[in-house]
Amino acid sequence: MNTPLRRVGVTMLVMLLLLLVNATYVQFIKAEDYRTDPHNARVLLDEYSRQRGKIIAASNGQVLAGIEPTDDKYKFLRTYPGGAMYAPVTGFYSIRYGAGGMERAQDEVLNGSDPRLFVRRLSDMVTGRDPRGGNVALTINPAVQKAAYEGMTKKGYTGALVALDPKTGEILAMVSTPSYDPSALASHDGKEQEKAWTEFDADEKKPMLNRAISETYPPGSTFKIVTTAAALEDGMKPDSEVTTAANVKLPGTNADLENFGGATCQGNTLKDALAYSCNTAFAEIAGGLGKDKLTETAEKFGIGQTDLTVPMRVAPSGLGDLAGKPQLYQSGIGQRDVRLTPLQVALLSAGVANGGTVMKPQLIKSLLAQDLSEMEKFSPEELTDDPAMSASNAGVLKDMMLASEANTKGGGKNDALKIASKTGTAEHGSDPKATPPHAWYTAFAPADDPKIALAVIVESGGDRGLAATGGTVAAEIGRSAIAAALGGG
Amino acid sequence: MGQPNSDPAGQYVTNPPRDLPTRRGTELAMLGFASFIVTAAFMLVEANQEQELSFAILWYGLAYMAILTVAHLAVRKWAPYADPLILPCVALLNGLGLVMIYRIDLARAEKALQAGREFSANAPKQVMWTVIALALFLAVLIIIKDHRTLTRYAYTFGLVGIIALALPALLPSSLSEVNGAKVWLKLGIFSIQPGEFAKILLMIFFASFLVSKRDLFMAAGKRVLGIELPRARDLGPILIAAVACLGILVFEKDLGTSLLFFGVVLMMLYVATERIIWVVVGLSLFAVGALIAFQLFTHVKTRVANWLDPFADPTGDGFQIVQALFGLGTGGIGGTGLGAGRPEMVPESSTDFITAAIGEELGFIGLCAILMVYLILAMRGMRSALAVRDTFGKLLGGGLSFAIVMQLFVIVGGVTKLIPMTGITTPFLSYGGSSLLANYILVALLLRISDAARRPQTSAKPRPQQQAPLAEAHTVMVERPK
């Protein structure tokens, strides 16, 4: 009986050998495939347990998205000291819901998988430290962000504010209200995350929508900057004569286009038309310029670009249908199908402020390695191939906007700031006359050496309802942001 | 031997009685080694989970050591010549299983805490089961002083084994079904898998039966196609038993146990008859049976489909096996480290899939080491079977040893996608009372057989002195009675 027993012994050896060979295949040859398979939740969990890099404001080093060690299995908790104020800038980072905003756009740097961080990771491996992520330094100016956010939330406005340095395109403030606190989404408590997400998601005011770059609105009279620029480039002068009529018929239709409040315009020059925001004048100017000239100038301001990122994707702005005169008339005053993001409106002012050249907006100042050494620095770039207008025309338009500011009502006026601006009161909705308009304000300052250009939108009249205008509702917020930028340094 | 010496009795004493070393000291040292590894493993888990060294591991450690001490003393007393490596192998496997169960408990507790669910830890229960298993281990060592006495009750064991196996199938699902497998007996607060015990009872029956009919199998019978078949009435009981087992197991949807039984029966048949043709016939029958089962049962089809391509449905049917592969792959060669992986992501990681958890945290190296410990355990058992003098002991010892490897092959092969996955426990490692109890009984029997194998022969029964023929007898001086 011993011979078969010995053979069974050999069989047992063979069976074990098979298991070992197969284990080798699974844990050695196929290991990498299994480890990195997208269905393998360990990959994700590992990433969430890594020390993620910070998002900071480059100007003063203020932490916008930080990291805190914890005792639980994820090891590190994402913190947002600025909470809702900076949510449109930072985005969110959630174990259950992934990442959004800057957290998503710069995920590779923040989680440490960016190839440029490799050398650093190698030394981490040798020293046995857990790999860490790199840091992202933003162009945000906390003082401006704070002034803008407080201005928007003080009265519970729904809307957005974008401010940038017109010479470099660096975004100084990006506010969207109502906002949300990303800390709740970063919680390690699954229930808390879920509760927060459901709450934000169900909120009909869409707190997680970044209105500054992801939403487009009819720009209203702020669009007259484009129309004016096109007109100046076409040879018009500030003192060229324009209509003062209270209303004009849209060519070929029975519909009227009228001025705000149905009044006749004060002054009959182009300069006056902009200063007093005369609709009939600009409708006729747009009609006279024609589709091509208007579109061309708009494009030079960046309108129509579909691939703009800051590095979050910016919703494309567009002019819509300009096929005929009626469309041109209405589009010339920023109505009908014209849709701009608040960022794009800010770029209109920025273009004028920068002598006609629109700089590409950017939110990242530099990318930093784990030890805060600089990995990549962003330098100013022009947004479009050609300037929106000549420097001299930009100077002319600046003077016109200074005059416009002088005629604009609203709080926060301060002569020392030397603001050039344009307001807008944009009708929208299916029954525009009964729907509170969007209040716009776009400006730059100081006029002779611009350091900040911005756009403010307060959706649906803010607290003034149908009576709202850009000047009464939006201007005050814009002025306080400018004051914060120039006063605070 | 050399020249016949002057001692007439000398020619019969070819192996003069000498004090064979019992090697109990070796066993103690190896047990110490095993407990060192297990204690270190417990500490690693705690360190990697970043917890303060808790009283829990102190209590687990002490309980584990106490069990080892009692087992060792019992072997010293009741099986002093037993193989010194069998118990340390079992102790190491049991201990590492306990570490892994405790480690998965920590993860489960945290998950439960996050979800606000109730959580019941498995590790304390496993310790309790080990204590009960130890009691059974002692009982077997004490009651069965000679494994040959088991042959007297072979038919009884066979009958009880079949009934135990059949019971869950006959009982209503409410008393016998857990997670779709109808293999349980729910007795109030705790439940057992009678199949685990039937495994041993039936092996005893088969061993005894095959030994008693061995000559018939080898000689009597007709030749069909060159194969000498035993007479049907001799083969009958074993066929009935085998078919009944397989039928019941198919009915209970317990493919793993079915496969295990099949393998063990085939192996014992081969060893008893010394004819490879039984293996050939058996495997052919298995192939046919497998084909039929594949056609008839959807759950068999699902298992095969999941084996061929688990990634076809990674979140549904293939989920378990895919998660196990992810765990093994993530562990890679060196593993993530004890307590530093995420073994709780694999479903049933404390029971069926515990080797996936080990492969993840201890890596390929750790998994191989564990497999090697099993191999040593089974090989020491096989060695005892080879050395033991009675055929029943050989067959039973061989069967028990093979059963360990067969079970390991079925479950680890399933977890690592070598063969289709069939639910079965990993001996000593997996969480589970029945499995632990049954396997401790199995080890007690192996120790008993190895004790018999290494026990000095002459001490058992003095051989009757053969009388020399009268004519050649020496003249013997007899003292005159006074």
TrEMBL record, chain A:
List the GO terms this entry assigns under cellular component, sorted alphabetically: plasma membrane
Membrane-spanning residues: none
Superkingdom of source: Bacteria
Domain spans labelled Penicillin binding protein A dimerisation: 52-136
Entry-linked Pfam families: PBP_dimer_2 (PF21922), Transpeptidase (PF00905)
**SUPFAM superfamilies, per database record:** beta-lactamase/transpeptidase-like, Penicillin binding protein dimerisation domain
Mind listing the GO biological process terms from this record? amino acid metabolic process; cell wall organization
Q: Which residues form the active site?
A: 472
The Enzyme Commission number assigned here is 3.5.1.1
Q: What is this protein called?
A: asparaginase
From TrEMBL, chain B:
**GO terms for biological process?**
cell division; regulation of cell shape
Q: Where in the cell is it found?
A: Membrane
Residue span of region Disordered: 1-20, 456-482
> Which InterPro entries does the annotation name?
FtsW/RodA (IPR001182)
Keywords, in A-Z order: Cell shape, Membrane, Transmembrane, Transmembrane helix
Its membrane topology is listed as: Multi-pass membrane protein
Q: Which GO terms describe its molecular function?
A: lipid-linked peptidoglycan transporter activity
Transmembrane ranges, per UniProt, are: 28-47, 53-73, 85-104, 127-144, 153-171, 183-211, 232-249, 255-272, 277-297, 353-375, 395-416, 428-447
Where primarily located?
Answer: membrane
Record Pfam families? FTSW_RODA_SPOVE
Compositional bias, Polar residues, is annotated for 1-14, 456-468
User: Which protein, by its recorded name, is this?
Assistant: Cell cycle protein
Q: Origin organism of this chain?
A: Amycolatopsis albispora
